[in-house]
Design goal:
With 335 residues, this protein is of the alpha/beta class. It has two domains: 169 residues, Rossmann fold, CATH 3.40.50.2000; 147 residues, Glycogen Phosphorylase B (Rossmann fold, 3-Layer(aba) Sandwich), CATH 3.40.50. The strands form two sheets. Strands 2-1-3-4-5-6 form a six-stranded parallel beta sheet. It has a six-stranded parallel beta sheet with strand order 9-8-7-10-11-12, with helices on both faces. Strand 7, helix 6 and strand 8 form a beta-alpha-beta unit. It starts with a strand and ends with a helix.
Length: 335
């Protein structure tokens, strides 16, 4: 069984890219694999279509798996052999007018209609897909993202006097400005992964928050940020999954995250859940984790259990079973 994986080429650390590399490494030897990278950044849209068309016509496999953000590649592939992974549909909520129409049809509806199966990285994402696209529910399967085996427990003593709070991401959906307001007056240091835009810097100054930021990090450097922190705060407004939650679980750091979208689903009882739209709720959650030793230890212990749901071998086995299902159906169809 030969599986072709279609994805972007990444120069820096990018969680989805890394995680699918890990999944592939855990597949049985009987799966012949080939990764096909496509042109993306800096090219006009027509050139992107031409590039992916050329690749899909040249390369042939038993299964085509589109793993990240080129849903339109399904236009050029055999439907019965194609699996499309969808991580979220955030663009549908961020755009309006013609852009929203284009996204809904050419990035969501038509690619789904041209794929044999869809995998969603959370039940939340699956529900959203089925809400916006009329397709058989059985066609959309939930297979979670895995956690990288590089994230391992690193015991530490919690700094209650001045904890180091880690924030991963700086996009508007990460809700950083409310989080900054929530920690105003709390003795702490904030470490931000990503270059804060000018507006965020103004909020940091206004709220008198001590901070530092890092960008363009390798996976090892990302891990070191988790190790160095006392608490991970990830109060996004929307996530299709929420990888930082399980990364923090794996390193054994307490987490404060949102009670909405996929974050509550991924965290289970291994995080303090707060209302991301309510600054007071975010603040109360952070203060509780800082001050309540027993609660903090409870979250860390729950994280040790929660991370097992996202074990790379377990996730790879689910993909392997889906590949077998698609492969066997195609063999029966051609017999």
């Amino acid at each position: 069984m030969k599986v072709l994986f279609f994805q972007q080429k990444r120069e820096l650390y990018y969680s989805v890219h890394i995680l699918f590399n890990i999944v592939r490494s855990k597949l049985p030897p009987s799966v012949e694999q080939k990764v096909l990278y496509y042109a993306h950044n800096g090219l006009p849209r027509l050139k992107k279509f031409q590039h992916i068309f050329s690749i899909s016509r040249k390369e042939k496999g038993d299964i085509n798996h589109i793993v990240e953000e080129i849903n339109y590649a399904a236009f050029f592939m055999e439907k019965e052999k194609t699996i499309l992974t969808i991580h979220d549909i955030m663009r549908l909520y961020k755009t309006s007018g013609l852009k929203k129409f284009f996204f809904k049809w050419f990035w969501l509806k038509l690619p789904i209609s041209r794929s044999g199966f869809i995998t969603a990285v959370s039940e939340t994402t699956r529900t959203e897909i089925l809400k916006h696209v009329a397709c058989p529910p059985s066609k959309v399967r939930v297979i979670y993202n895995c956690i990288s085996p590089a994230f391992v427990p690193v015991p530490s003593t919690f700094n209650k006097v001045k904890p180091n709070i880690l924030q991963v991401g700086i996009k508007p959906s990460k809700n950083l400005h409310r989080m900054i307001q929530a920690i105003e007056g709390i003795p702490c240091r904030l470490t931000i992964v990503g270059r804060p835009p000018d507006e965020t810097l103004r909020w940091l100054k206004k709220c008198n928050v001590e901070f530092s930021w890092r960008e363009d990090l390798t996976q090892d450097e990302i891990i070191q940020q988790y190790v160095a922190c006392d608490l991970v705060v990830f109060c996004s407004l929307y996530e299709g999954f929420g990888v930082p939650i399980i990364e923090a679980n794996a390193v054994e750091r307490p987490v404060v995250t949102s009670n909405c979208s996929a974050m509550a689903e991924v965290a289970g009882d291994a995080a303090c859940l707060v209302d991301p739209l309510d600054i007071a709720s975010i603040r109360a959650g952070i203060i509780r984790v800082i001050n309540d030793d027993a609660y903090r230890d409870q979250l860390i212990e729950a994280g040790r259990i929660n991370k097992e749901r996202f074990d790379a071998k377990h996730i790879a086995d689910q993909y392997y079973q889906l590949y077998k299902e698609v492969y066997e159906k195609n063999i029966a169809r051609s017999a």
